[in-house]
């Protein structure tokens, strides 16, 4: 398998604070990789280094075969970053945001690209409204749509569903799944264990500056005591009730 | 693979288009920028003006250059504000992780500052005309006035860039402009420096605003500008270069 990301011994400190103390990880091309960790574990720092926004203090990191410190420009051509805070322009409309990014990626037909993405992400109706009027879920969808422009080989999603309602979260999950199905590598960070379990082919847990475990969900499960069999009445979760009532489950 | 250098100008024009939309969609910023200088002009002309002896019967003519500088100093605080908000909201992170010229986003803000301030200056000159401002300046003199104002705007804009990039809060991003707005008061902008006590006068006569105001006033009234023009230009270019070097250093550190 070809590697989309190879990281060895990655180190990063902010002044006295040693955030990354030697992170090792590998991500296979076309897979969904989830980096799990609590707040402040260094997930965002890792993403920023891989997306060439920060320089590492030590170790090596290669993205799509390019070293992030020696050929950042090549890395930038092959990736897209959806940061933790929706990186959209609030004063522009949804359509203008998409056209702006398409023009910055020097695509032939920015309007056409924007129209396609608006349709695909269910934003056609809101296309000409200012983004400041959008809901959190719409903003996130626009944010991800902006990241897809130019068809990058690898997309970073830093906590894509933090702060979203369950419906919007499922919308984002569907997008991530579609991306992976079309061959794009997805590197996502999350605090929600369920999200990693649902989506990821590979999971790594970042704790106190190091990857403490990694593997597929099955592999992780084998490292822990076998599941006990218990018979309990299956109650619907609140999320299931919520989604059943509003009747929009699985709808994009 | 293409290099990003080839696209610097097209990237910058996208950025300029973006922040110009920010301005046209929030015209209140232009109005706020113009309001204080216009109020000051009304106050000084119709309230204090009668008691101020400047050796000319048209106090609006005397006052206008200083008022324009105050307007520009107010205007650039919005440049710092817009830059600060971009840094906060993560849109700069998106731009910087894309294969575009790294400084295009910054230059977009700088050019926007220039255009926005040009609009405010034009509005204030129109109000001054209504209040009795008259100029005997020819085309060349007006061009020189525009040039000095543009250089002054650029010099202050690069200071605003430093503030916008390094501020920790919204208030901090715009607070730096208060001392700059105050500078024209201790200059020849409102009263002749001869009327000031020695220490204040020494400061007033050797600070940039006096040279710039005197040069603008001479150009607008069709008099010989003399060395003031060169002193004014030297101040503008000097401040601009120093601020630019520092701003770029801060920018490289932040992105």
UniProtKB/TrEMBL annotation, chain A:
SMART domains: AAA (SM00382)
TM region positions: none
Pfam families: ABC_tran
GO MF annotation terms: ATP binding
Domain annotation ABC transporter: ranges: 5-233
SUPFAM superfamilies listed in its UniProt record: P-loop containing nucleoside triphosphate hydrolases
InterPro entries: AAA+_ATPase, ABC_transporter-like_ATP-bd, ABC_transporter-like_CS, ABC_transporter_ATP-binding, P-loop_NTPase
Keywords attached to this entry: ATP-binding, Nucleotide-binding, Transport
Family membership noted in the UniProt record: Belongs to the ABC transporter superfamily.
Protein name: ATP-binding cassette domain-containing protein
Organism: Sporolactobacillus mangiferae
TrEMBL record, chain B:
Keywords from the named record: Cell membrane, Membrane, Transmembrane, Transmembrane helix, Transport
Localization, UniProt: Cell membrane; Membrane
UniProt organism field: Sporolactobacillus mangiferae
Topology of this chain in the membrane: Multi-pass membrane protein
UniProt-listed InterPro entries: ABC2_TM, ABC2_TM_bact-type, ABC_2_transport, Nod_factor_ABC_transporter
Pfam families in the record: ABC2_membrane
Protein family membership: Belongs to the ABC-2 integral membrane protein family.
All residue ranges annotated as the ABC transmembrane type-2 domain in the record: 28-254
Membrane-spanning ranges: 30-50, 62-84, 105-133, 139-163, 175-193, 229-251
Domain of life assignment: Bacteria
Main location (coarse class): membrane
Presence of keyword Transport: yes
Protein name: Transport permease protein
């Amino acid at each position: 398998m070809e590697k989309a990301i190879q990281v060895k011994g990655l180190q990063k400190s902010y002044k006295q604070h040693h955030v990354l103390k030697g992170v090792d990880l590998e991500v296979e091309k076309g897979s969904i990789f989830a980096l799990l960790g609590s707040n402040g574990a260094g997930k965002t720092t890792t993403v920023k280094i891989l997306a060439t926004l920060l320089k590492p203090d030590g170790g090596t990191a290669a993205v799509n075969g390019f070293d992030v410190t020696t050929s950042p420009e090549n890395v930038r051509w092959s990736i897209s970053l959806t940061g933790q805070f929706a990186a959209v322009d609030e004063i522009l409309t949804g359509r203008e945001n998409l056209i702006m990014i398409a023009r910055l990626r020097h695509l032939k037909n920015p309007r056409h690209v924007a129209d396609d993405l608006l349709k695909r992400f269910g934003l056609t109706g809101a296309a000409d409204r200012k983004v400041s009027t959008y809901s959190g879920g719409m903003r996130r969808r626009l944010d991800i749509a902006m990241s897809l422009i130019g068809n990058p080989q690898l997309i970073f999603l830093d906590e894509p569903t933090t702060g979203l309602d369950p419906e919007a979260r499922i919308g984002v999950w569907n997008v991530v799944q579609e991306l992976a199905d079309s061959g794009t590598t997805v590197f996502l960070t999350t605090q929600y264990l369920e999200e990693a379990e649902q989506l990821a082919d590979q999971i790594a847990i970042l704790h106190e500056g190091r990857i403490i475990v990694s593997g597929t969900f099955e592999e992780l499960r084998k490292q822990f005591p076998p599941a006990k069999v218990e018979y309990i009445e299956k109650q619907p979760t609140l999320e299931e009730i919520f989604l059943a009532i509003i009747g929009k489950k699985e709808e994009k | 693979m293409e290099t990003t250098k080839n696209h610097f100008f097209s990237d910058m024009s996208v950025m300029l288009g973006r922040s110009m939309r920010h301005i046209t969609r929030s015209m209140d910023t232009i109005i706020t920028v113009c309001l204080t200088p216009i109020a000051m002009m009304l106050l000084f002309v119709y309230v204090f003006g009668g008691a101020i002896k400047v050796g000319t019967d048209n106090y609006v003519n005397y006052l206008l250059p200083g008022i324009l500088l105050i307007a520009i100093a107010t205007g650039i605080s919005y440049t710092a504000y817009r830059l600060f908000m971009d840094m906060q909201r993560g849109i700069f992170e998106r731009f910087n992780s894309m294969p575009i010229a790294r400084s295009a986003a910054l230059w977009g803000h700088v050019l926007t500052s220039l255009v926005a301030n040009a609009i405010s200056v034009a509005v204030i000159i129109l109000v001054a005309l209504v209040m009795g401002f008259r100029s005997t300046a020819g085309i060349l003199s007006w061009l020189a006035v525009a040039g000095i104002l543009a250089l002054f705007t650029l010099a202050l804009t690069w200071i605003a860039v430093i503030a916008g990039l390094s501020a920790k809060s919204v208030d901090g991003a715009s607070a730096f402009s208060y001392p700059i707005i105050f500078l024209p008061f201790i200059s020849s902008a409102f009263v002749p420096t001869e009327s000031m006590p020695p220490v204040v006068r020494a400061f007033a006569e050797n600070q940039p605003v006096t040279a710039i105001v005197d040069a603008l006033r001479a150009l607008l009234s069709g008099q010989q500008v003399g060395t003031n023009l060169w002193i004014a230009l030297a101040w503008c270019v000097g401040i601009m270069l120093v601020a630019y070097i520092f701003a770029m250093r801060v920018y490289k550190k932040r992105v």
